[in-house]
Hints:
The chain is an alpha+beta fold. The strands form four sheets. Strands 1, 2, 5, 8, 11, 12 and 13 form a seven-stranded mixed beta sheet that branches. It is built from 14 helices and 13 strands.
Amino acid sequence: MAIPDELCEGSKPKTEEVCSSDMCAIPPLNLVPDExxxxxxxxxxxxxxxxxxxxxTKGYFxxxxxxxxxxxxxxxxxxxxxYSSSPDYxxxxxxxxxxxxxxSRYGHQAKDFILQCSFEGIPCxxxxxxxxxxxxxxxxxxxxxxxxxxxxxNSMRPGSKYGLKLTLYIEQNEYIALFGxxxxxxxxxxxxxxxxxxxxxxxxxxxxxxxSIGLRRDILDSPGHPYTKCINHGEFISIFGKGYxxxxxxxxxxxxxxxxxxxxECAETLYMDGPRCQILNETQEECRQLMEFFYQRGLLSSDCxxxxxxxxxxxxxxxxxxxxxxxxxxxxxxxxPMNKKIRDNVVDKESARDNLLRMEVYYEEFNYHRITKLPAxxxxxxxxxxxxxxxxxxxxxxxxxxxxxELFVSICRYALRRVSRK
Length: 422
């Protein structure tokens, strides 16, 4: 189209030049934010897709807003509490960084925690439990662990009268307000040769109740290659230690922590050596959240697969108030001589129900539920079907081949007789 005269007045001579609308159109600009470019430069070996980083910055990354907090080591608790943006202070859970030795020393001790114990009606005690440290729950205690000093225990009868029975003391008076926002214990039932993760798979049991946990065993069998990507693993070496058998949960958790240590140059768990990740270090905090985002998106290379055979337990919980008003006096007479802390802190019904709980874990039945995955179509079946179709459509079967051979022999014999007669 021609350029209008009024646009040219006072600026240049009149011209007859024309231009097409395509030439005059200005293409839209697609600018990549500087922060995305910076992340691609640092983590482009994992993925260089700018859309991934934009999704992270816009929808996943959480700025902790602790810029005015003075220090993290030692923690400026007043500053952290002042600038916490979470109503339950959940954004402060990673401020306290203890080693395994610190957790072992300052956490709940088995002799104080486990007051009464019996298995299949036979008394047991705190020495029958193996202690390990957990990032979320501190000292945890495993009964019938392969690492324990006692030999393997097996349930011989189902029902609530048997199994494991415990009386536990949770020491609420020693809770730290910020990190002890709920009272109770976390319980997880798992295979004795696998790494437990109670924060992922456990159930919470409250004080002041008797809790019955009924178990049913489930077994999952899957075929291996080429039908599924499951793997058969024996002993599995991970950041959580040696001697355990493989589990996909342990494998995935190991991988994400290894990536955080490699890419962020800090450790996010007490199971790994190295400097711990600092919340006030903006680079480390951004990197840590980014690795978790990559993990959720499946962008971190990993050889973790589901095991071809897995055993898990379905639980059924029921509760009743405990101890009853009539039982309280007799219970305290039994427990007070056993533990000084009980004598000092459990003095009435209220304190008993705040600090004590009774728990029993047992098999509901000895039958189990087995889920077996089978190939829908085997190679042998395929070959058989091919042979059947060949025999159906072109008559190529074993008996037909034999008949053709017999006919060929008969023709040859007939031809030889004709030749011999001549």
